[in-house]
């Protein structure tokens, strides 16, 4: 049986249940263009198995190509309930689960989408490692999130992080440090998207088996 690391932070679970009804109003419009740009890395000519890990209220779902088979996973039932209506035109399975302990066997997916989840979960390295584990060799991770630059001081963000990490999101995550935990992944592209490069669109590829 998979352990559920997110249960170590009950305040985070409760807060996302409370904000589920207003999440879309706050997040959808400012992030829509960046989400669309990031999801442009999905192919539109071959059928693939795609995991959307940390699907939230399903804001990515209307932007996805319809030819793939999707699995949309989130740890919060209130968020996942709101996502279902957005997947009506897709081949999609909804799964209640933890991005830090994915309930899937190794090498199951061709693509993994990680939008605004790695900087939310308590253990970002574990989240990325799990995504890499369930990804097929040669598969691709599409990542969109906010990251500090290596050695960036950002004192205000680090100060606010003391509070926000408990109920909303982390503000101190350095992508390069997270990547170190998954040596099988290589960076294909890394593009600044929002807030002067604080939000980045990153494409990673898992090494193929020899």
Features:
210 residues; alpha/beta; Rossmann fold; 7-stranded mixed β-sheet; 7 strands; 26% strand
Task: Give the SSE layout.
Elements: H1 10-39, E1 49-53, E2 69-74, H2 77-83, E3 91-96, E4 109-115, H3 124-134, E5 135-146, H4 155-167, H5 175-179, E6 185-194, E7 199-206
Parallel strand pairs: 1-2, 1-4, 2-3, 4-5
Antiparallel strand pairs: 5-7, 6-7
Helix pairs in contact: 1-2
Task: Describe the model.
The protein is α/β, with parallel strands linked by helices and 210 residues long. It has one domain: Vaccinia Virus protein VP39 (Rossmann fold, 3-Layer(aba) Sandwich). The chain is 31% helix and 26% strand. It has helices at residues 10-39, 77-83, 124-134, 155-167, 175-179, and strands spanning 49-53, 69-74, 91-96, 109-115, 135-146, 185-194, 199-206. A 7-stranded mixed beta sheet has the order 3-2-1-4-5-7-6. Helix 1 (10-39) packs parallel to helix 2. The protein is globular. The protein starts with 9 loop residues before the first helix and ends with a strand.
């Amino acid at each position: 049986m998979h352990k559920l690391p997110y249960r170590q932070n009950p305040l985070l679970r409760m807060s996302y249940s409370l904000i589920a009804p207003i999440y879309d109003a706050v997040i959808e419009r400012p992030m829509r263009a960046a989400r669309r740009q990031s999801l442009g890395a999905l192919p539109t000519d071959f059928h693939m198995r795609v995991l959307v890990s940390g699907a939230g209220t399903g804001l990515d779902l209307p932007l996805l190509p319809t030819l793939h088979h999707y699995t949309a996973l989130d740890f919060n039932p209130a968020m996942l309930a709101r996502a279902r209506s957005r997947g009506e035109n897709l081949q999609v399975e909804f799964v209640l689960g933890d991005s830090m302990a994915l309930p899937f066997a190794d090498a199951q997916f061709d693509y993994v989408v990680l939008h605004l989840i790695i900087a939310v979960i308590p253990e970002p390295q574990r989240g990325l490692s799990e995504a890499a584990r369930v990804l097929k060799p040669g598969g691709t991770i599409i990542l969109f999130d906010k990251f500090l630059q290596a050695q960036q001081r950002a004192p205000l963000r680090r100060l606010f992080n003391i509070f926000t990490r408990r109920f909303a999101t982390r503000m101190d995550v350095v992508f390069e440090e997270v990547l170190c935990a998954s040596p099988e992944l290589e960076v294909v592209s890394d593009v600044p998207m929002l807030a002067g490069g604080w939000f980045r669109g990153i494409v990673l590829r898992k090494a193929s088996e020899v």
